[in-house]
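Recap for those who missed Tuesday's class. We walked through two folding examples back to back. For each one, the amino acid string is listed first and its predicted structure tokens come directly after. Nothing is annotated here on purpose, so try labeling regions yourself before you check the end of the notes.
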Amino acid sequence: MEQISCKPEDKRCGLIAFKVGMTFLWDKWGKRIAVTVLEVDRCQVVQVKTEEKDGYTAIQVGAGEKKLKELIKPEIGHYLKNNIPPKKVLREFRCSPECLLPVGYQLGARHFTPGQRVDILGTPKNKGFEGGIKRWGFSAQPNTHGNSLSHRAIGSTGGRQDPGRVFKGKKMPGQKGGRPIAKLYMEVYKVDAKRNLIYIRGGVLGNIGDPIFLRDSTKWIYKNHAYLNYPTFVPLPGVKYANEAIARAPE
């Protein structure tokens, strides 16, 4: 497989990584930068969907490892058909027909380039049913002056006869965490190809060990185009590449 030239509007395949934790690095000016470390663990192309067969183009990616006894029969047939070892997590990414990859192709940390922006989908920690103070940061009511048994109550939630109802999306007590949330326009600060690690600048939602889904940012497609390798990073024969790459510090 060879690298090709594509338009900025063309979509590449995404990547599945697992959250390792957070640390910090220093740039050449001595500024400390907080980063989240993500590990790309045996990320492979499991299935390729085409316009002729499925009506759209996409790539199904799998990562991690799963025991054979934990699979159900349809999953066993799915992996045997494509001759792929069982994966812990599966995810489908829409992509352009020019950026399709063959089944079984192994994706690494070099799929992303330091300095580019990515969109990240993660699931924050599940906090259960929480009140308005913890869920939304509301202020508590006064502790004195006749206030009894309603110190942490959120107070009024509606108007009078008009509108006569509570608007949808009103900030009220409810479930906190445990639902996937996307963080857009995150910077890839460092890539460690030897250990298959990706360092994302800032915090990434999720617990340690949780799967994180990454793809090229949809808000930065024209500036990202200079960083991207289409359809993915393909090493040239006889060329030695550095194990680590870091984004350029501002001048």
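Example two. Treat it independently of the first, because the proteins are unrelated.
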Amino acid sequence: MKYLVIPEVQAADTKLQLINTGDSIIQGKLEAYSCKRAGADKKLSTMLDRQYSDPAESTAAMPCGSLERTYSGFTPILTASPSPRDQPDDFMLSESPGVMARSASSSSVGMIPDANMRRLFINLLLTMNTMFPDYDFSSVRPEEFVEENNHDLVVHSINSSLQKAMLLEPTLAPSLWQGIDSIRPQECFIFSYLPAASGGPLSERCIWSFNYFFYNKDLKRVLFFTCSAQRGDVSSSHDVDESDEMDYGDYDDETEQMGFDMEM
């Protein structure tokens, strides 16, 4: 995957690097990549394509029903309300719009013997590998991606999550959406990445987080927007004198509670 120099995207990325809202520290990254593969990308792509194109291997590797895994982590995205209407105002902050709609209209990327689907899945993995070169995402499973079928809900999700930051920094919203508009989001397939395992750069403990991929098939580009928030006093623990005693059991309990089909 080749990093693309797009001024609008770079401007938004700079504004997202560190935002202090007082009660939280928000950090985000917005980067665009070409789907052209070269070097190590080709080698990994060939390995993954071979792995996921073998139905027998896929069946053996995945427990029955794992594609319908319900994600229970907290993210500041949207959860469908009991209301039968499908409008942004009828959703609340909690999870990805696609997670709650999965049973009715959405599905995970899935591990199926379809060349286009495999290519898409591999592109998402390669994007993360390129964006975070110190971490290997090759073990990420297809069911950790959920397609977001409603563009308006994704917009509402992002704006709701960053509402306080946008109020504090009036130039953030226009800059951010100008960057996202560079990939023509209404023409994109949009996916959320919901990490199942802890320990990666996108699954660290935080108050909330989201990871959106905007894939434009015609442009052969991927725009990746990842953002998370930590407690505003997160650095205070480093200032505590080493001689001071701390109830780590209570602290861990508290932070854990806070933790965080496409047709081609």
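Answers for example two:
The two ends are 20 Å apart (CA to CA).
The chain has a mean pLDDT of 73.
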